[in-house]
């Protein structure tokens, strides 16, 4: 991965922060190497047991690189909510490295914007995340992101925006004939922009088992053509959450990552972008504050229902 310097982080003012590393001794080297490769300004390094005391003493922090992999769950449950509060209050960006088993715990604790979760990352993954976090603070990021990686991230944003707009069109409401437009838009059921059946037609019954069949059919392609050729994490996750909604089931963040059928870090980024776009909703577990479930927003749910109703009305296969 070629690294060329652009604007040095150390040139930022004191209020601009820098990078604070939270890592136990065996993980410090990985974090330091990433900050150095990204040419970031290292403020300090602190162990997890001393993190809370450091938060009380620390001034402005631009980015926190938290090496959470291998850290005891009880320690994370104690520290991460405080870190999340600091990020919300001070717009600190958080890059956290985790293991697959920690997805639900960490995703449930770090719920604010500006969080990038890296599951089993390489040095390159850490460097890319640090540069993206730096650019999120309005700084010009280093030219450290490979063109292919930058292109992929740009396409992720564009694809989420496209999906959001498509679902918005599917659920866009039209005023009823001879009705006051303002009143109609407030009470009328959303109708289909690209309609294949009469507005007065009875709603089409959609069964969770049919959605599950469509999901299995998508996975069957991978068995015959190999994984990676048909990656479509946004649609795979929409299907999984829609099926769960019809089943009245709850979906954890880790389960949704599996449904995405891509690398965990990629899935977590898609979940974050889909949530920011208003398509997914994070729902706290009422019995365990350390966990959170994912669900479709009302807009996404209505869009999925209208989409599958249109397929049924047109005699097309679900997929």
Span between N and C termini?
38 Å
Class from helix and strand fractions: alpha/beta
Approximately how much beta-strand content do the residues carry?
Answer: 5-15%
Largest sheet report: 5 strands, parallel
- Total helix count? 12
| Run of helices and strands | EHEHEHEHEHHHHHEHHEEH
Mean pLDDT: 79
- Number of strand segments: 8
Tell me the radius of gyration: 22 Å
The gross shape turns out to be elongated
Low-confidence stretches: 1-15, 137-147, 174-202
Helix content: 40-55%
Question: Largest sheet, order of strands side by side?
Answer: 2-1-3-4-5
Structure in a nutshell:
The chain is α/β, with parallel strands linked by helices and 319 residues long. The protein has helices at 28-37, 51-57, 73-90, 103-109, 123-136, 147-170, 181-187, 208-225, 233-247, 253-260, 264-276, 298-313, and strands at 19-22, 42-46, 63-67, 93-98, 115-119, 251-252, 280-285, 288-296.
Please write out the topology.
Layout: E1 19-22, H1 28-37, E2 42-46, H2 51-57, E3 63-67, H3 73-90, E4 93-98, H4 103-109, E5 115-119, H5 123-136, H6 147-170, H7 181-187, H8 208-225, H9 233-247, E6 251-252, H10 253-260, H11 264-276, E7 280-285, E8 288-296, H12 298-313
Parallel strand pairs: 1-2, 1-3, 3-4, 4-5
Antiparallel strand pairs: 6-8, 7-8
Helix pairs in contact: 1-5, 6-12, 8-9, 9-10, 10-11
């Amino acid at each position: 991965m070629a690294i060329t310097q652009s604007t040095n982080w150390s040139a930022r003012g004191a209020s601009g922060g820098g990078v604070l590393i939270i890592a136990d001794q065996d993980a410090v080297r990985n974090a330091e190497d990433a900050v150095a490769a990204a040419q970031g300004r290292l403020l300090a390094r602190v162990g997890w047991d001393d993190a809370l005391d450091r938060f009380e003493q620390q001034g402005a922090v631009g980015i926190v690189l938290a090496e959470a992999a291998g850290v005891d769950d009880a320690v994370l449950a104690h520290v991460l909510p405080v870190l999340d509060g600091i990020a919300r209050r001070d717009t600190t960006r958080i890059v956290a490295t985790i293991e697959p088993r920690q997805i639900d715990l960490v995703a449930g604790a770090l719920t604010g914007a500006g969080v990038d979760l890296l599951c089993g990352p390489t040095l390159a993954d850490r460097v890319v995340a640090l540069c993206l976090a730096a650019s999120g603070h309005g700084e010009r990021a280093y030219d450290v992101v490979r063109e292919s990686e930058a292109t992929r991230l740009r396409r992720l944003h564009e694809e989420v925006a496209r999906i959001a707009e498509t679902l918005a069109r599917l659920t866009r409401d039209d005023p009823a004939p001879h009705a006051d437009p303002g009143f109609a838009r407030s009470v009328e059921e959303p109708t289909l922009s690209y309609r294949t059946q009469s507005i007065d037609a009875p709603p089409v019954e959609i069964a969770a088992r049919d959605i599950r069949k469509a999901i299995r059919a998508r996975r069957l392609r991978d068995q015959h053509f190999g994984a990676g050729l048909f990656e479509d994490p946004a649609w795979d996750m929409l299907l999984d959450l829609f099926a769960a909604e019809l089943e009245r089931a709850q979906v954890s963040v880790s389960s949704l990552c599996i449904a995405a059928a891509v690398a965990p870090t990629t899935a977590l980024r898609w979940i974050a972008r889909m949530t920011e776009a208003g398509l997914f909703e994070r729902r706290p577990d009422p019995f365990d504050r350390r966990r959170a479930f994912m669900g479709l927003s009302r807009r996404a749910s209505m869009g999925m229902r209208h989409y599958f109703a249109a397929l049924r009305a047109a005699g097309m296969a679900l997929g």
